[in-house]
Write a structure and sequence with these properties.
Shape: extended
Largest sheet: 7 strands, mixed
Radius of gyration: 27 Å
Distance between the termini: 76 Å
Number of strands: 13
Length: 267
């Protein structure tokens, strides 16, 4: 039988079938390559106790990335573990159980208040300038809509005044406010994420923490720029306050555990 479309090698195996098989091999190789490249961050995996966990595919060899603005090189994966000791302890001996804070989770940076070990350097724009800067040090910026919060008292979820808003930190390339700068009663300054503050006519309300907790918020090293590590610590602190700085949010679980202890049953 003649085969006008392709050469006939044996049976029905012709060039069309070869092309199909080659495409399948190429597609499988592409998936394998993309998945291995996806494993450059967050790998190798670890178990809850810190031991090495096996993954389905092997971890790729380190690749060197040249960072912009003369910031050197970065290798991924770098196979480096986080060096800080976490104030956490397992609630049970078996695997898969949650870890509970052993100290003040807000200050220790664990649980909902956790932060990542990012580089302790500011995020830069395309011209190698820090993206986030206080409005008092950046010209050509003004509040064009809404209430200017500068001069308003900052109030926690206990309705008590913790200090006063004295500045606004703006993302210069994006032209929007990222943080509010609060000067506390002792004269020290703290940053409050704009997304966690409500600007009202007579105050700036922060729902996640009480007025006394502002003093525990992380301080930044410079008054003109904030690093990526400091951003993570500041955001983690206020986010963790939604759980750890309100008795109304923690007490129901505490009562449940107390009741379970009295009944001799696990919570």
């Amino acid at each position: 039988m003649d085969t006008p479309y392709g050469w006939l090698f044996f049976g029905n195996f012709d060039l069309a079938l070869i092309s199909l098989y080659l495409f399948w091999l190429f597609f499988a190789g592409l998936i394998y390559y993309i998945q291995r490249e996806n494993m450059r961050e967050g790998y190798p995996l670890e178990n809850d106790d810190g031991s090495h966990a096996n993954s389905l595919l092997p971890v790729p060899e380190p690749k060197t990335f040249i960072l912009p603005h003369g910031r050197g090189e970065f290798k991924a994966p770098d196979f480096e573990r986080e060096k800080r000791e976490l104030a956490l302890a397992p609630t049970e001996h078996g695997g898969g159980f949650p870890f509970a804070p052993t100290g003040d989770p807000m200050k220790d940076g664990v649980g909902p208040a956790s932060w990542a070990m990012r580089r302790d350097e500011p995020e830069l724009d395309g011209h190698a300038h820090p993206k986030l800067q206080p409005m008092s040090k950046v010209g050509d910026f003004a509040v064009s809509a809404g209430r200017d919060p500068r001069g308003l008292p900052v109030v926690g979820n206990d309705q008590q005044v913790a200090g006063k808003i004295t500045d606004m930190w703006v993302d210069v390339p994006e032209q929007l406010v990222r943080y509010l700068e609060a000067t506390l009663s002792d004269g020290t300054k703290r940053l409050v994420p704009m997304t966690m503050a409500r600007i009202k006519s007579n105050m700036v309300y922060v729902n996640s923490i009480d007025s006394a907790s502002f003093a525990d918020a992380p301080m930044i090293a410079s008054d003109s720029q904030i690093t990526k590590l400091e951003e993570d610590k500041v955001s983690g602190f206020y986010a963790g306050g939604y759980l750890y700085r309100s008795e109304k949010r923690v007490t129901p679980m505490s009562k449940l555990r107390l009741l379970s202890d009295m009944l001799g049953k696990p919570a």
